[in-house]
Amino acid sequence: MTAADTPAPKQKISLEVNGEPRTVSAHPMARLLDVLRLDLQLTGTKEGCGEGECGSCSVLIDGVLVNSCLVPVLQAAGTKILTIEGLSSSAGQLHPVQQAFLDCGGAQCGICTPGMILAAVHLLAKNPSPDLAAIREGLSGNLCRCTGYMQIFQSVSQAAKRLTSP
Question: Residue 65: phi, psi to the nearest 5?
């Protein structure tokens, strides 16, 4: 075994996840997806393809939508990460986007749902009143194999109305 074959040692990496400071001991190139699911037990973030193509593992890092399967955890050090678990209120009330997905049937098998909801949250933060074309564009990095998308688009539209209504 050569030095090149020796795995890098784990490092302590600090980040903020869902508003809480967290420190993990992980290989610096471990996928953020795996650290969230295995080390922090935040299993709402799903792995669909593991290649950054489906969006199931989407999370927000400092307000930017990313595929956590493509992000080495070291790259996330010192950032603020929002996962699906961080959307609901401390009182357990669903975020308006989550509620709209529930009300409009925007979720079926559930694999794409967390990433789809976070993509919708990201879209609505940038464009509070998107039309159908903007919703399609905003969710274009997220694949669903169950719904046919119409219920998802309706969910985002309904959430936009709820978020902009007084």
Answer: -75, 125
- Residue 103: its pLDDT value, please? 97
- The burial class, CB within 10 Å (0-12 / 13-18 / 19+), for 103 is middle
Across the range 105-127, mean pLDDT stands at: 96
Distance CA 50, CA 31 (A): 10
For the chain, the domain total comes to: 2
Residues 24, 43 share a domain: yes
CATH label of the domain that carries residue 49: 3.10.20.30
Rounded to whole angstroms, the Cα distance separating 91 from 158 reads: 23
What is the DSSP pairing of strand 11-17 with strand 80-82?
A: parallel
pLDDT band at 72 (very low <50, low <70, confident <90, very high): very high
